[in-house]
From TrEMBL:
Protein's recorded name: MFS antiporter QDR2
Superkingdom of the source species: Eukaryota
InterPro entries: MFS, MFS_dom, MFS_trans_sf
Source organism: Wickerhamiella sorbophila
Gene3D superfamilies: MFS general substrate transporter like domains, Multidrug resistance protein D
GO CC list: plasma membrane
Amino acid sequence: MEVKTETSEKSLSSDCEETVQLTCQVGPESTVERIDTNASVDPVPETIYQSKPELWNFIICTALGQVLSTISIPIYFPALTVLADYFDTSLDMINLTATMYSIFQGLSPLFWATLSDAIGRRPVYLMCIICYIGANVGLALGRSYWVLFGLRCLQAFGGASTVPLMGGVIGDITSRKNRGGVMGIATGLGLMGNCFGPLIGGGLMSQWNWEGIFWFLMGLGAFVLVVIFLCLPETHHYFAGNGSIMPQPWLNRSPYAYVHRAVTGIPFLPTDPEYEQEWRASKPKINLFQWLWLLVQPDVILVLAPMALHYTTWYMVLTIQSTRLASDYKLSTTQIGYTYLASGVGTFVGSLVAGRLMQWSFQRYVWKRKAYCEEKHVPYRQSDVNIYIARLDLCFWASLILIVSTIIFGWTLENLVPFYCPVVMTFLMSGCATFFMSASTTLLVDIFPDNAGAAVACSNLCRCLLCAAGLAAVDKMSTAMGPGGMSTLMAGFCGLSLLCLVYLLRYGEQIAKKRKAKEKARREPSAKC
């Protein structure tokens, strides 16, 4: 009689549940037995980094990486008209460089994030930041519009991928129970680039002209590179397991991991007897088209469509804010930079609130599920909680506030109401748009934890490509329809997109179950001997 372990599924929860599936082969026929080991087996933590200081180390490292992406567009806004004059070109051509940045911001993570699912998070982080630093040096020294155009694409190719990489790292070290809170804090700190980017850009413009912006970004990139090299350990489950094994590739090893080993004795080196006994995921394969499979999943489409529309509406508003305040309100570059503080603070607050509310919402549905299981006398499993409802039910309120504030912003700007009124509206819009994005991104990581990088890359692709189209059309739409008409139109699109969420809340679980059934049917022939 031969006993073969086929899969081992471990899900961590407050109830410490664990299920192991064994395939027992006797002669030509095989049967599958599910054995509940809830009472006899201690749960294995998803990561050895359980303490608050260790979690904060991951949050700070990933947030700093994300700042490189989030600061690179808004720090550019105060310089738009100056760059148009310097390169003797139109504002539309300068806006085109922002559009191309958004396009590459969406496309580059399809390569980098998918690669990180195969070779680990840490090497890809380092390669992306080095690429970003080189692009900024070229931008600071360039004196041609087409150099600006091309290197902005290269800048996005490197820096923009830090956002999905953050999703991959957070997905590796968290479970559904605490993922919302950790993701919210990391996203909120990472979006500080949106908060202070325009203000920093305005200050640099007043002192060193537009070149100072790119020299600053180069220095910031170098600082982040050093921090991540020293402090970010590998989290990919194949290379590091749950953090208890030292990765074999040298680039996946961090000084932080060696310090942690000196203090605690973990992670184990290949020479340690415990090394082979530690859990690790199966060997990944490089599949650069994994994102394409994710992108055609019905629930992914239904999540991404409204999220991309809300993000595009938000960025279109931020773009016309700069040009309208300069042309209609005659504000200086520095003053315009100060007005973006409202949207930046709203972004930061929205992320932190999203983390808290997502954690509260998930726990609320856990309590409801436990009460149901006790009433029906059936065993409770955390995986039975409807994750679609737990993550998305509060998005309707965020969307409603965004829609109303967008309409108010447009019409107050068009009628030359004192500028602080539309600026306050950007605070509300930014907070709600960030809430919507945080909830959507966290849901994608929940649905596809083994492909977290590729899942977040899909999110990046959709929102950035749609945003690029919006940025390309924003000036013409604003001129033809006025800020009020444009804002009302985009708010209407956001409202219609909520129908996707209504359908997803009703049928999301059924879609997920059908996908799992298809995957199981596809794997069964290869499992038989």
